[in-house]
Amino acid sequence: MGYSRYDFTPLLHSIDQWLYSVMSPAWALIVELTLIGLAFLIFYALVGLFLVYAERKVCGFIQNRVGPNRVGKYGIFQTIADFIKLLMKELIGTKDADKLLYNIAPYIVIICSFMAIGAIPFAQGLLAIDFDIGILYIISVSSLSVIGVLLAGWSSNSKYPLIGAMRSGAQIISYELSVGLSLLTIIVLAGTMQFSKIVMAQENGWFIFKGHIPAIIAFILYVIASTAETNRGPFDLAEAESELTAGYHTEYSGIKFAFFYLAEYMNMFIVASIAATVFLGGWMPLHIPAWNGFNVVMDYIPPVIWYFMKTAFVIYIIMLFKWTFPRLRIDHLLTLEWKYLLPINLVNILFMALIVLLGWHF
Amino acid sequence: MSSFFKYFSDLFKGVKSLLKGMAVTNRYFFSPGEIVTEQYPENRNKMKMYDRFKGEVIMIHNEHNQHHCTGCGICETSCPNGSIEIISKRIDLPDGKKERVIDKHIYHLGMCTFCGLCVKNCPSHALAFGQRFEHAVYDRTKLNKILNHPGSSIIKDIEE
Amino acid sequence: MNKDINAPAKQAEEVEYHVNMGPQHPSTHGVLRLCLTLEGEIIEKLEPHCGYIHRGIEKMCEKDTYQQIIHLSDRTDYVAAHMNNHAVCLLVENALQIEVPERVKYIRTIMDEMTRIQSHLLWWGCYGMDLGGMTCFFYGFRDREKILDIWEETTGARFLQSYYTPGGLMQDIHPNFQKRVKEFLKYFSKKLSDFDNILSNNVIFLERSRGVGYLSREDAINYGITGPSGRGSGFACDVRKRFPYSMYDKVDFKEILRDEGDTLARYQVRMDEMRESMHIIEQLIDNIPAGDYSAKMKPVIKLPEGEYYQRVETARGELGIYCISDGNKTPYRWKFRSPCFSNLSVLDRISRKCKIADLIAISGSLDLIIPDIDR
Question: Looking at the partner chain, which of C135, C202, C356 has a beta carbon nearest the beta carbon of A323?
Fold first, then answer.
């Protein structure tokens, strides 16, 4: 197919072979891991900073404002300036806080989101590790971040953070189910959990079109549940600025606060890229069977651009949620999960299984 | 059975209301013409305050550095929080008489609440409101202003 | 920490969980301090502590002449400055039995209703923000700016106008005033549907406000809850209907009443009041009669000896002013019966057994302005 002209596999293979030819295998492995780690670290920081900027611009436009526009042209250096400010701020802790847990919590949160990013395919061949259980890996890794949130609230030895942490514990654990089940719906259709295979399976049509009704329902459910899982508005009860001042990270300042802040945006990026990969074809260009001319034109657009466009679309939807809706109350949040999302999800999986068995999908 | 239908009708009504809300915010996102932000320091030159805008109390002087203030002190008594102090002096007139005229009309901008009573009550319409509003200073003593310009005198053409 | 080894070991006993909401808290809109006793997230008891922004305005009024009191009354409930001015002016005019010109009555009524709209807009924005919808805040303030702009042209100030004066107005309306008000009415009637789509019909909002913070009609009367908060409980307390002043006995408007008594009812009363206020302005704006903008007043106003009470309907409820005059140019005693103070008193009763999130919704729906509570 035309899109394989943008395949990264040969390039990465040649780097791999060159490294192994110039040094011993052990060193080559270490160098490779270091390179990948560095690349992700830089990518992580850049995407985090860009998403903070994007969110401020999006909410600015939604609210009839212009957003940041003072630092640099259109304010593009605003987040960098903010980041430098956060780096230089004093770290203030509370008296009688559990020092070890208090200091470890931001790292747990940020490491979880950092681990998840490794399995996401950005383009053909451009992914750190291609697990055959990629989806399972991402779900399990991203659900670990609740430990960091709980620890942060508990160890702060303060009242508002504790309430925030307890809220987020109840919230993330229950919404984990819906995220898993809605992805399971697509796994039923795809028959695999490996990301590269899932993307390749969408060569002649994205899953959201292939699986039609149940896939669309699963997409909506996934977006809602994953918004809740990343603690973003309208599900930001753990932070609940107008109720709990800042929720579980009230007592954090400086770079530790920045870790929580960055992790929130990276989690949003990760859930958006999973949604893009699983439902919208990942880096796969838009192909419509039998429209060969159209497909060829689409193939000329590099897969990385496809990937980021789809991710940006999902991120915009998630941002629109946050800037439109009022916040839910904790019992309504759980009602939404256990009374609406979970039963609909279960029925949806059955429906999807039926469709796959009868061959009614495209 | 009715609860079954209620479940779904609630669900669809809820989703519909949420979509309506999202349509509004989405519309504003794609209509940058509705942006209302004032780009303040950039638009300083073309910014025009309304004529009646109460920026500060000023004393009107004509081109000969003359004003209408007779130093009667009505503004001082009508000010609710003592922002105005009138210091008058006696000068010798050519015909040997002495006359009380204003020496300093001190106006404490830092205490002023812009109630407008001094301007309204001034019998000779000597006071008015100025449109300047950038009053920030580093030292609050700079907010104590003398309204009559140095060397100014009263306009004599008003016949009693 | 108690390090005394002789002290008895602390049992794992039930300890009340106290949380201080305020004086610095994002959703108390100022410096109100609420001491909460929590059981999990359920509020067992709530104690409001006020006085953090007490400025002694009533005492300051007692050293001021009646013209000067105007600028202090602005600063109690600063979101509804015109209405507070109106109360002072009516008190002085009724005490001296001065008939103000028709033009003044018209302008005052229009200004009052514009105040009501902008006050409810500010409340709507802040209420949306309290519930977590930041966008509401900006939409509410965007439209409120338009009213402030119209006022700035006429009165010279956006916020604390001190526009009314005993006997009339400080100055006549600006020539553009009528045109711009009509433009605003046209603009705003379109924007109201946006407000409904974003918040009023939103299922999350309805779930959070329906049935929360129930206030019965009896309680509303017992606690003296007036204004939209009281009318949401079916307490017909609109001073404009019961004790008409200015033009309110001649214009056609409905007193919005609801029986539900919950947060949603108080919300809907305010939303409907905005429409009703627009209706009142529409009736008056084209018919402002020509004439003086002020009655002839003596420069020094001295009220005859006696006690006076004047009430007006502000955006938050009934504002009463009680004044004792000893015949001097300053009052002997001056007392504001401010609506927010009474409305705050019921907060403990209606927010018990609610969650913290509900408390935010309830206190927002009472529309408290903290300087009005403390004065």
Answer: C135
Residue C63 falls within a domain, yes or no? yes
- Residue B138 has what pLDDT? 92
Domain boundaries, chain A: 94-358
Given the cut 0.90, state whether the ipTM is greater than it: no
Nearest of A216, A239, A224 to residue A318 by alpha carbon: A224
To the question of domain B49-154 being in CATH 3.30.70.3270, the answer is yes
User: For residue C209, what is the domain's CATH number?
Assistant: 1.10.645.10
Q: Which helix (H) or strand (E) holds A163?
A: helix A159-190
Cis amide linkage into residue C23, ω under 30° from 0: yes
Q: How many CA atoms lie within 13 A of A358 on its CB side?
A: 8
Break chain B into its structural domains and give their ranges: 2-34, 49-154
Q: Are strands C42-49 and C168-169 parallel, antiparallel or unpaired?
A: unpaired
In the predicted structure, residue C7 carries a pLDDT above the cut 70: no
A338 touches chain B (CB under 8 A): no
**Contact state of B28 with A325 under an 8 Å Cβ cutoff:** no
Interval A225-256: pLDDT, tens: 888 888 887 888 777 777 777 778 888 888 88
C41 in reach of chain A (CB within 8 A): yes
Would you say C18 and C36 are in contact if contact means Cβ atoms under 8 Å apart?
Answer: yes
Position C354 in a domain: yes
Give the mutation candidate from B12, B22, B25, B52 for the C interface (greatest C CB count, under 10 A): B52
Q: How many domains does chain C have?
A: 1
pLDDT in tens, A98-140: 888 888 888 888 888 888 888 888 877 777 777 888 888 888 8
Would C335 be classed as within a structural domain? yes
- pLDDT above 50: residue B160: no
- Whether C289 is covered by a domain: the verdict is yes
- Cβ <8 Å between A326 and C142: no
